[in-house]
Write a structure and sequence with these properties.
Blueprint lengths: L2 H19 L3 H9 L6 E6 L3 H12 L3 E9 L10 E6 L6 H14 L7 E7 L2 H4 L9 H13 L4 H9 L8 H6 L3 E7 L22 H10 L6 H7 L10 E7 L1 H14 L3 E9 L3 H18 L7 E7 L13 H12 L6 E7 L11 E5 L2 H7 L4 H6 L3 H7 L3 E2 L10 E7 L2
Parallel strand pairs: 1-2, 1-4, 2-3, 4-5, 5-6, 7-8
Antiparallel strand pairs: 8-12, 9-10, 9-12, 10-11
Bound molecules: adenosine-5'-diphosphate, 2-phosphoglyceric acid and magnesium ion.
């Protein structure tokens, strides 16, 4: 085995271990074990909702009256007693989203103040839990969110707009549940763990305003009809008094896990940030500038080193290729370190899907670009066309995990050895 092959294997091990450490099962059970709850209604939304619901059913069992899971297509792992399980569209909502959300609203509509809704929230919830505001259609929401996503808007901007077009986001779901109470367990996939942004904060007071939403649409040059503008001008709740929130997992945990596995494998780990953001290809260059500093000057960490970054970059999609922000970061990184020895990078979405592809991300090294060229791929052109998936496929650099059952943002690891 060559050095580079060994490092690729080690980086895969680090990623696998870290994702296992942020599966929500244990954290949900720990949180629920000491609770006295009777007649609980459970609503679970997002890409990790099936696992969160399963852990809940294991702990609360008989105390559950009824539960509903809404997760992304291909993310259900089977039946759970007393639960109805829906799969729906992501990152754009679809008819199944609306159907499942209506079922949730029906379930919580006549509860009393003695009832509790256990609300299990994970990223993906914005697309998977949706009932358009009066005067807005599903198509309106699909079009506006699609445009925002492709223009490189970050998750705060995207969800500020989503919250103002919805009957269940930005605290409005909590109003539906009242007078019953909500206990909300949250798996965070948003920079800074902002509770009003994760899945668009269905039970959390909204910190954004109608004016913010309109300014974001203007910034990205997205035109809306007057009737949509009027809907956006209806303000979201700024206080919610029937919900308590607890964060049970986040990107911090996944970075810590990566650091401990790196130590086990003999690397000096350093977590640089848990809030990486910006255009994916620019982030790649910045990350590799640090790698080069480590190689040249053993700064700010000595070789063998594991550089760890958590967060979520964005991509302005200009071409018509296939990819995701992690694959795009990996491709740009491959171009930056072409020909270099003993450097390997992995960039991975912890949910197991990066963009509209079946890959979780990519693992690249100094020979990736040569491998692409050998198979007739011009990596610069592919990057220009946002076709990172096919570029990484040609060099054998895609990381494919399938849905992981969790969702705590993205992790980037760089291994450097002598
Ligand atoms: N060809 C592409 N290359 C890079 N990114 C893309 C491409 N097509 C779509 N995307 C990005 O993928 C994002 C959705 O990816 P996804 O992994 O589902 O996000 P999340 O995990 O945060 O839900 C969109 O915001 C869009 O910018
Ligand atoms: O649902 C959402 O709003 C976001 C953030 O929580 O999740 P994802 O990026 O996975 O769609
Ligand atoms: Mg996201």
């Amino acid at each position: 085995m060559t050095k580079s092959q060994k490092m690729r294997q080690e980086i895969s091990e680090i990623i696998k271990y870290s994702i296992e450490k942020v599966l929500p099962d244990v954290a949900v059970k720990e949180e629920l074990n000491n609770l006295q709850l009777n007649n609980v209604y459970v609503v679970a939304i997002g890409k990790a909702s099936w696992r969160m619901a399963k852990a809940t059913a294991d702990v609360l069992g008989k105390c559950i009256k009824k539960g509903i899971v809404i997760t992304k297509y291909g993310h259900s792992e089977g039946n759970i007693e007393k639960f109805i399980i829906y799969e729906a569209g992501h990152p754009l909502p679809d008819e199944n989203t609306i159907k499942a959300t209506d079922e949730v609203l029906k379930m919580v509509s006549n509860l009393s103040e003695n009832d509790t809704v256990l609300f299990l929230v994970s990223g993906g919830g914005s697309a998977l839990f949706e009932k358009p505001a009066e005067g807005v259609t599903l198509e309106n929401i699909m079009k506006i969110t699609d445009k925002l996503m492709k223009s490189g808007a970050n998750i705060y901007e995207l969800n500020t707009v989503r919250k103002h077009l919805s009957q269940v986001k930005g605290g409005r779901f909590a109003e539906h549940v009242a007078p019953a109470k909500l206990k909300v367990l949250v798996l965070s996939d948003v920079l800074g763990d902002r509770l009003d942004m994760i899945a668009s904060g269905p039970a959390y007071p909204d910190s954004t305003t109608s004016e913010d939403a309109l300014l974001i649409l203007k910034k990205y040059k997205i035109n809306i009809d007057e009737n949509i503008k009027q809907v956006i001008l209806r303000e979201t709740p700024k206080s919610v008094n029937n919900a308590t929130h607890t964060i049970i997992g986040n990107v911090e945990k996944v970075c810590q896990a990566a650091a401990s596995k790196a130590i086990e494998l003999g690397y000096n780990p350093m977590i640089f940030t848990t809030t990486l953001q910006g255009e994916a290809r620019e982030a790649a260059k910045f990350i590799m500038s640090i790698a080069k500093e480590v190689i040249k000057n053993n700064r700010p960490v000595g070789v063998p080193a594991a550089l760890i970054f958590g967060g979520e970059t964005t991509v302005q999609v200009r071409g018509n290729g296939v990819g995701g922000r992690n694959q795009e970061l990996a491709l740009a990184a491959a171009l930056d370190i072409a020909g270099m020895k003993n450097v390997v990078l992995a960039s991975v979405g912890t949910d197991g899907t990066d963009g509209p592809t079946d890959a979780a991300g990519g693992i690249i090294d100094g020979d990736s670009v040569q491998r692409m060229k050998n198979s007739g791929v011009n990596p610069v052109k592919y990057l220009e066309n946002n076709d990172s998936y096919n570029a990484l496929k040609s060099s054998g650099d895609l990381l494919i995990t399938g849905p992981t059952g969790t969702n705590v943002n993205d992790i980037i690891v760089v291994l450097i050895s002598d």
